[in-house]
Each structure stands twice: as structure tokens, then as C-alpha cells.
User: Which sequence fits this backbone?
């Protein structure tokens, strides 16, 4: 089973960016954590981060035929991007929406997600562990058929 992890804008700055919200782990630290978990689950993992909306759209378009599912932390694009939503509608690859922070406990502008209703499920608020929980849940769902 192959799962692609897609990370949106500013997540490359984790570790230094608003540590009181996002913690001290870098994106590379999180990638290591998720790769360890993927190995235990016998999941083949692809990891991607971009600061550009179009690049994220293209990565989503390329999921079909390349991945059985995806984990998506679209970061701020979660709340703004119809283009990301349309790409997800176009490919119909099962995905989990995830966030490090609990977006519902933050500013009102973050309470709305343009992709949540398309997701298999949502994980938010557990820091780096959100990625691991999302991976476990998606792998379980895909294995269940
Ligand atoms: C985030 C939450 C978003 O609202 C924010 O724009 C991010 C990160 C999270 O992982 O908590 O960049 O997706």
C-alpha cells in the first residue's frame, strides 16, 4: 500500500514558526516519525511539501494511479483554496485531512475547511502525532476495503 503525505505552505518552517502553537519539531523530524510508523504498518510512503498552491494542486492531480490514499495538511490553503478542493474532487483518492493544531480552537477564519467534507476523516490538535494517527487510521480503512 502506498500513501502520499502532502504538506502545504509554511510547514517547511516548523520548529521555528510559532512554536507555542506548532511545537519545536521540524518537518524533517515529523517525516522521520511518520516513516517509522509507515514501516511498522508496511506502508510505502511518499512525502511532499510545497509553499505554492499550484504545486499542491499538481501533486493532488498526480495521486491517481500513484497512491492508494493521501494524508493532507494543506495548511492555510485548507481555508482558502477552491483549487485544492477541485483537484481532490477530480482524483477521488481517499484522504485524511490533518492539522498539528486544533483549528476549531483558533481564530474563526481557521474554523472552516474547504476540504473536510471530502475527507475520509479529520485529525487535528495532536501535534506531530496527528500525522501518525492519520496514517494509522487511513491504512486501517484502506485495508478494510
Ligand atoms: C495547520 C493549521 C492551519 O490553519 C495553518 O494555516 C497552518 C497549519 C496545522 O497543521 O495546524 O499552516 O494546518
Assistant:
Amino acid at each position: 500500500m502506498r500513501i502520499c503525505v502532502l504538506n502545504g505552505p509554511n510547514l517547511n518552517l516548523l520548529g521555528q514558526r510559532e512554536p507555542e502553537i506548532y511545537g519545536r519539531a521540524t518537518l524533517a523530524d515529523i517525516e522521520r516519525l511518520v516513516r517509522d510508523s509507515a514501516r511498522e504498518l508496511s506502508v510505502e510512503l511518499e512525502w511532499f511539501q510545497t509553499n505554492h498552491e499550484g504545486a499542491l494542486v499538481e501533486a493532488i492531480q498526480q495521486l491517481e494511479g500513484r497512491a492508494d490514499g493521501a494524508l493532507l495538511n494543506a495548511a492555510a490553503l485548507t481555508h482558502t483554496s477552491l483549487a485544492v478542493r477541485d483537484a481532490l474532487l477530480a482524483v477521488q483518492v481517499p484522504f485524511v485531512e490533518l492539522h498539528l493544531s486544533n483549528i476549531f480552537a483558533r481564530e474563526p477564519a481557521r474554523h472552516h475547511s474547504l476540504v473536510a467534507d471530502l475527507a475520509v476523516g479529520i485529525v487535528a490538535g495532536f501535534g506531530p502525532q496527528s500525522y501518525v494517527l492519520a496514517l494509522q487510521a487511513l491504512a486501517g480503512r484502506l485495508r478494510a476495503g
The radius of gyration is 14 Å. The mean pLDDT is 97.
